[in-house]
Amino acid sequence: MNDPVLRVEDLTVRFGTKRGVAEVVNGISYELYPGETLAIVGESGSGKSVGVLALLGLLKQPPASVSGSIRYRDRELLSMSPKEWRGVRGRGMAMIFQDPMTSLNPVKTVGFQLTEPMEQHLGLSGKNARTRAIELLELVGIPAPESRLKSYPHQLSGGMRQRVMIAMGLSCDPDVLIADEATTALDVTTQAQIIELVGQLQERIGMAVIWITHDLGVVAGIADRVHVMYGGRFMEQAPVDGIYASPWHPYTRGLLGSIPMPGSDRPERLVTIPGIPPDPVAMPAGCPFAPRCPRADDSDCLRTVPTMTAMGDGHAAACHHPHEVDA
Amino acid sequence: MNVKPVSRARETLDALLANRLAVAGLMVLAVLVFVGIFGVRIAPYEINEINIAERLQPPSGTHWFGTDDLGRDVFSRVVVAARVSLQVGFIAVGFALFLGVPIGLVAGYYRGWIDAVLMRTMDVLFSFPAILLAIAILAVLGPGIGNAMIAIGLVYTPIFARITRGSVLVAAEEVYVRAARSLGARDGRIIFRHILPNVMAPIIVQTTLSLAFAILSEAALSFLGLGVQPPNPAWVRMLSDGRNFVSQAPWMGIFPGVAILVTVMAFNFVGDGLRDALDPKQKSVIESRGRSV
Amino acid sequence: MSDVLLQGEDLQVHFPLKGSGAIGRSGGTVKAVDGVSFRIGRGETLGLVGESGCGKTTTGLAILRLIEPTAGRVIFDGTDVTALGAGDLRALRKRVAMIFQDPYASLDPRMSIGRIIGEPLEIHGLYRGSGRRDARVAELLEMVGLNPDYRNRYPHEFSGGQRQRVGIARALATEPDFIVCDEPIAALDVSIQAGVMNLLEDLQRNLGLTYLFIAHDLSAVQHFSDRVAVMYLGRIVELADRVSLYEKPRHPYTEALLSAVPVPDPVAERTRRRIILEGDVPSPINPPPGCTFHPRCRRAFERCPLETPRLQPVGDHHVACHLYDGEGALPLT
């Protein structure tokens, strides 16, 4: 087994707000190996986006306060200076976001936005950067790449803009690509194209991908391993087959039960998870999911945060009463 | 869920009261309004009573703000002039609101040729320098305080029309407006129940700021002899009269001047405070993107 | 299927584009809805599905005449909606309601939810008399699973799912027969979506409602609808009951759409055959000639760019595709 390219330990992010301290990310730990796709699944309020913004040092401290350890290739990122961060961002680790329209600079051409990081990070000359930019646009499947260099973001469709974002992300050969809800705002056919593209690029370049999403359908198609996040913590983690075939955590079960499965006969009513996600300013004492959990008891669950317990085969759950392993 | 329902109005009020400058401004305005209403009763002396023997007296126990070149008590004159200044401000701005906001509502909601005609008219009014316009209007209506108020009101109408229209253009596209239409609401209900309450914020802010300017405008008209007629006191005329006696009796100009300053600042503080309370900035917690968790 | 409650006949919504001149030189037309016909039976749910630009939301708005159709008719319970005058149209709004996509934007932030839900009662003068309106509002809140004590609270105090329930309560206030649901769950979290969908189903059963369910989420549409219509660039390309649409899609676009929908089953995902479409969803401003799907269609042939296919019965589906029509028609498998 290779060494992990990214190792996160006990990452915690808190924010100071008017109403008090918001505990948005509460001690998550994971590893990312070269070439693999890790999916972090959660709904809004789970802290999944903030968790990866911390990976790239994109949180203003204050009001945020980030603690724990993020090791990228044996380098501790959290103790880096802003200058050192800039060296890692875009170079070793790159990120693509949900809405390419707001992520791309509307007043700069596509060509500029591609060549600028290359000139800065890789020291490429203008001409070489331009050539590489054209290569990248071809790589991401944009037709007539040379003429596209002069286009502005608003002249491209959503799918194309996302491809440009991916090209930008790849421009400096990162080891790690973080896709934060990168296909959520796209049409389903465009989403399929982008997912296919990222998969192909991964094979070709060998980069690792962290895919943040709430869509369990997308996850099933792209992930090698899955972490389920709720209330700033990981509830369950497993290889992708295991999560779907035998979810142990009640939250994972609830999530899977609440999505309509295509093609079945008129199914039973969908499973609903009563209640709403916890308020980060007023996180409950024990397990964050306990207030809504059908299996919660009155003592352990409400008082003690369960630790992530391995159950074999790379499958682990943080639960006092996990479902039994199904046959 | 909160224990008690908290309306937007309540939240705004709380935010406003937390702003100390705004509270100071509000207190000053409260004093001014009180003085404006009861001014004549408070004034210890007749405002126009000439008493040459007492002229140019410095502030003392009997004349708190001293006397002017004709022996008139400055304090009494300042207090009584407060009413006029405030009156002009409120009535002129009230007129501008009464005319400008409906114009903006109609123009912004119906658009098309109504919008074009109304706003071009507003543009014409707006393109005249304010004083010239006021003078022109007064030339038609004749001088005097009532007409001055109308003139100033007309000068401010385009601003209110524009601000209202701008907000209405946005509000009319909101989904809740479409929802109201889907329920069968008539235009009138939509405009007054849904759009107007949601565009009040910039109008309120503009109102307080315009009040400050309106008072100054009256002053400008007074300079030209078109506002309050002598011998009735008006702060700016008192200020200008005091110019001639700066070395002998600086208090003649200082007190009315301070009154103007304090009033304008109070309106400004309240206006700024309202703007902040109604439209709180959301601090971005993320370095380059303002998104939530 | 019982009698037809709502019928659309060749519905069209075209928007003229202003050119760049200030006077409004015509720059073309946006054919948002370009000849859509359908029937919805009483008590039925018709799902309307498609990607961005396909015109599904515009269709929903046109049915209520919140956007005026430029051609075609909408017939509700025997009445031609498109020909109604203002007064009659207003009366119609008691019987036909709409639920909007964005729970954050569809409620007036300055009104308490009690007033929001009671507004249709005010508009139409229903439940007059002391306390009757309040009682009705309380009843509606309970119907959607919200505590009636919250009627004086404001929208911003509620979560997205709760706000959507308020929107549903508002739609139900005048006891409508028909509700257009425009992407009612798209803006909600996954675990909340299920609750709202269950609620809509229960309400349909208990109140005898008929729905037009507009969405881009194919799985949700299939779960929820009786029949499904697939739209592409302003036209319906296939219409079938939910089971056979999924099992045997006939239109190439439906096939591609279904194959693009991610399935929450990793084994299935690994083994399924994907049809990846080339290119982007075209804009409705200059749609391709003939069959608007032909540039991206892997089965296109000579006739496709020349002639617009009509929606025709093919087995138990309706399909608008030359593959099933006349020369070159495929045998039914």
Question: What does this 3D model show about the protein?
Answer:
The complex is a heterotrimer of chains A (327), B (293) and C (333). Chain A has 327 residues and is α/β, with parallel strands linked by helices. Chain A has a domain at 224-261 and 268-327. Chain A contains twelve helices and twelve strands. In chain A, a hairpin with a 2-residue loop joins strand 1 (6-17) and strand 2. Chain A starts with 5 loop residues before the first strand and ends in a 9-residue tail after the last strand. Chain B is mainly alpha-helical and 293 residues long. The longest helix of chain B is centred in the first third of the chain and has 37 residues, at 74-110. Chain C has a domain at 4-95 and 176-215 and 223-230 and 240-248: P-loop containing nucleotide triphosphate hydrolases (Rossmann fold, 3-Layer(aba) Sandwich). Chain C has ten helices and twelve strands. In chain C, the strands form two sheets. An eight-stranded mixed beta sheet of chain C has the order 6-7-8-3-9-10-12-11, with helices on both faces. In chain C, strands 2-1-4-5 form a four-stranded antiparallel beta sheet. Chain C is globular, with a radius of gyration of 21 Å. Chains in contact: A-B, A-C, B-C. At the A-C interface, helix 7, helix 8, helix 9, helix 10 and helix 11 of A face helix 6, helix 7, helix 8, helix 9 and helix 10 of C.
Task: Note the main attributes of this structure.
heterotrimer; A: 327 residues; alpha/beta; 8-stranded mixed beta sheet; 4-stranded antiparallel beta sheet; 12 helices; 23% strand; C: 333 residues; Rossmann fold; 10 helices; globular
